[in-house]
Amino acid sequence: KRSYRGSISFRINNGKLDIINNVNMDDYLKGVLPKEMSPEFPMESLKAQALCSRSFAINNYNKFIKKGYNLDDTTSSQVYFGKDVEDEKTNKAVDSTLNEVIKYNGKVAETIFCASSGGFTVASDEVWGGNSVPYLITHEDPYSTHPWKYELKDKDFEKLGISGINSVNVESFKDSKRVDNIIFNTSQGDVKLKANDFRKKIGNTIIKSTLFDIKVDGNKVLVSGNGYGHGVGMSQYGAVEMAKKGQDYKKIIDFYFPGTNIEKLN
């Protein structure tokens, strides 16, 4: 029921028919931006998102090339809904930054982004391992806090496979202050869980980040935290706050990807 710019082609992959939208970069971005950021957000934050999304698409250009296409329309790439979701403001953000990308040492940067850093961005190697990336680092982010709270329910303890909790301790990373491991002291002994596994089991939209405190209060286990998402790269809520304070998209990119440059594609 959606309409798309460009053309449509078909390919059989593993016995299934894939429908492929052949579209130029900026028309693609016009179908991405409204799904990543509200068109009601300030224009400078939308421009920053346009640069992130364009650079991200280029960096992931060959992700699905063996299947005959570059990107998919889910969060595995970027959410893309085609022409129907286009908005005048997000289209303007794409058009006014035409061919602009974020580069580091002459190469298009890995422009990771999340909803909210919770007050501290986090280094990419801390979250996913691998080599450190000079511009995806841990630093304080006063523009993006996003506090949240949650009380664990009986169904959550079933998902975790634990009961009879006496106390809870956490092991946190020093710089980003995010939780690495949670140690539940139970009547059956200590149970240690990775914070990311804890998030997945309870739900990433409930435990919104690994930047949290967890404590036992009587017969309750309470979690209170900040941020939404992995915390790497640009905080979208932070970009909005910076724009509201009069910062332009170049300042936003410089803050969240220190040491990078904005350049035109050749």
Describe this structure in words.
With 266 residues, this protein is of the alpha+beta class. It has 8 helices and 15 strands. It has a 3-stranded antiparallel sheet with strand order 4-3-15. A 3-stranded antiparallel sheet has the order 8-13-12, with no helix packed on it. Helix 1 crosses helix 2, helix 1 (25-36) packs across helix 3 and helix 2 packs across helix 3. The model has no long low-confidence stretch (mean pLDDT 95).
Keywords:
266 residues; three-stranded antiparallel beta sheet; 15 strands; globular; 8 helices; 27% strand; alpha+beta
Q: What is the CA-based Rg, rounded? A: 21 Å
Low-confidence stretches: none
* Mean pLDDT figure: 95
Which H/E pattern describes the elements?
EEHHHEEEEHEEHEEEHEEEHHE
Question: Major β-sheet, in short?
Answer: 3 strands, antiparallel
User: Number of DSSP helices?
Assistant: 8
Measured between the Cα atoms of the first and last residue, the distance is: 36 Å
What would you call the quaternary organization? single chain
Structural class estimated from helices and strands: alpha+beta
How many β-strand runs? 15
Strand content: 25-35%
Helix content: 25-40%
Walk across the major sheet and give the strand order: 4-3-15
Shape: globular
